[in-house]
Write a structure and sequence with these properties.
Elements (H helix, E strand, L loop, with lengths): L1 H22 L14 E2 H10 L6 H10 L5 E3 L5 E4 L20 E6 L3 H7 L9 E3 L3 H8 L5 E6 L1 H6 L5 E2 L5 E3 L7 E2 L3
Antiparallel strand pairs: 1-3, 2-3, 4-6, 5-8, 6-9, 7-8
Helix pairs in contact: 1-3
């Protein structure tokens, strides 16, 4: 039972951190710097003040064991940030890199009409998130229902001038995927 309880607690901590390190830092009174970093001590103090205390050990556990590696410590472990997925303005400082020829995006059937017409858009985030493999894309899409995996012709996009960056946890980021570069299920 302890394992199930600790897994549930780690998931709650991860969701809480995602919300406040990516979308709503003001809600708990933290200020992200321009690159999205916040001192760990300030984060932990703010979490406790807001009624959701997190220990340093729990924080380290979530950063180290999260299957999606959503968070990272700086080189000396004094600051933390989300690796990507922000809706608040941050500049992660990721270099533009050449993507593999093919990347993937997980979604659900309800979004296909808009995707066919407009392509993939970042919506409330800064970038469109793409996966390096179909299994990861399938898991991402499954968060909202039965997953459909789209294939992105990233190599052709790159040759056409689209820019890609890769986050610390391997998620590929680009500003938009036009419909011409998508292979959708029929």
């Amino acid at each position: 039972m302890a394992n199930s309880t600790s897994t549930h607690r780690a998931e709650r901590v991860s969701r809480y951190l995602s919300r406040h390190l990516r979308h709503a830092p003001d809600d708990i009174g933290i200020i992200l710097d321009t690159a999205g970093w916040v001192p760990v001590t300030e984060l932990l103090d703010a979490c406790a003040r807001s009624g959701f205390p997190i220990t340093r050990a729990e924080l380290e556990h979530v950063v180290a064991t999260s299957d999606k590696q959503r968070f990272a410590f700086d080189d000396i472990g004094q600051r933390i940030r989300a690796n990507q997925g922000h809706s608040v303005r941050v500049e992660l400082g990721l270099d533009v890199v050449t993507p593999p020829d093919v990347l993937f995006h997980g979604t659900i059937e309800a979004f296909l009409p808009a995707i066919r017409e407009q392509g993939l858009r970042p919506m409330r985030r800064h970038d469109v998130h793409l996966s390096p493999d179909t299994e990861t894309a399938r898991r991402v899409g499954a968060r909202r229902g039965r997953s459909i995996v789209l294939t992105v012709d990233a190599g052709a996009m790159h040759r056409d001038g689209h820019r890609f960056r890769r986050s610390a946890n391997g998620v590929w980021l680009t500003s938009h995927v036009p419909p011409d570069f998508l292979h959708l299920p029929e």
